[in-house]
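Chain X:
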Amino acid sequence: MDTFTTNAHPIHYNLKIRERFTLKKYGIGFFIVAILFLSTVNVSINEVSAEGFNKDVKLTVEQIDEMAKLQQKALEQKVEIIHKYVEFGVFTEAKGEKIIRHIEEHYKELADNDFIPNWDKHKRHGKHSD
């Protein structure tokens, strides 16, 4: 036998037990640090997204027209990009059409809201707006 044994257990067996204990200890510590970090990042993201948005603003007719033109250009570019992805085989025809419908629905929602984004609609899953 090439390994030294004590109490009928080889030394490498005892080392493996110590290694597993150390990995568990550090693994649990890493997990706790990761949870704490992610919880603070989530709070920071929520604070930033809620900050700086004034939902009481009403755009003038000229501003609405300008935003409509910009959003229409953006819509056309996004649709063109999706068509290229379909052409290159990245998306199937059905997937491309589904994405385009979603983009067009988003444009319609913006137009219905005078091109002011509705950020509060994303506050779901137990989060309440102030």
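Chain Y:
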Amino acid sequence: MLYSITIMSNCKSLSPSLEDYIEAILILETRHRVARVRDIAAHLDVQMPSVTGAVKNLREKGLVNYEKNSFISLTDEGKAAAEEIFNKHSVMVEFLEAVLLIPHEKAVEQACSIEHVIDTETAGRVRNCSEYIRELLDSGKTVSVSEWSKRIGKGL
């Protein structure tokens, strides 16, 4: 399966910290159907006032729905942004573990940093590379440089 490119306008204006918040909200909504300030604080290991400030900022950007003392939910745009960030994170963890053979904990930690600086196209190429390397290893084939280049950029 090739990585598809998603265009997301508001993500460019998010700091790595705010990206972490919307990614955490996505994870919590997926696991528990709702996200609360205290759950986000626990997930990110931050103080609740920090969460409240970040959530207000995300609300101003139109990425979350939030009223004081209520659940936090992603808007459609917020969900798209969070899914893009989560996908980049997942691609990088997979690549670091499966291709570079980095231990899981270290791969997760490093993926958290990398996800904030790569764009969607780069993440797609990393995913294509991971998949192609697995195919090559499974088949025992060799590959030319031109075929390698074609496959890594395929679908982008």
